[in-house]
Input
Amino acid sequence: MKQKRELPISSVVSTIETMGDRWIIFIIREAFFGSKTFEQFQANLGIATNILSARLKKLVLNGMFERLKNQNDGRRFIYKLTQKGLDLYPIILALMNWEDLWLAGKEGPPLLLYHKRCGHRLKPVMCCAHCGKPVHAHDVTYEERSRRKIKADIQKKEKRK
Output
């Protein structure tokens, strides 16, 4: 009988499992564009209310949004990106950039982004935090860590606290 092989630990797999589906990404994108209420998300996305409700609950449970009472209408709530949610911005930019490059067609991208600081059109680039140079797939090497090593590192950190 074959042994069940444990899949390697992957940040990509964990992120995709947390994100869930395309609606989650669309909702997060809309939050970055200023949507805050259930009604705004629903109107901008055309998403069924039951699906939107379930996805917003998941985003709140996963700590990407916080659900706050609407100051203008105490019966309603607003959904605000947490730091964990805000940290998804580079992912959303990368997806938009890839779409603009490969799927936009002759008419060009459907949305143009501009950097507020310099006023120029934004072209997102992934850079190394250490040297500041752009990072491409062929520029990166990796070190795979075993589950045992990761657990041991976590235990060491917890003991230091």
Notes: Strands lie at 65-70, 73-81. The radius of gyration is 20 Å. The chain has a mean pLDDT of 90. The chain has two domains: 11-86, 107-160.
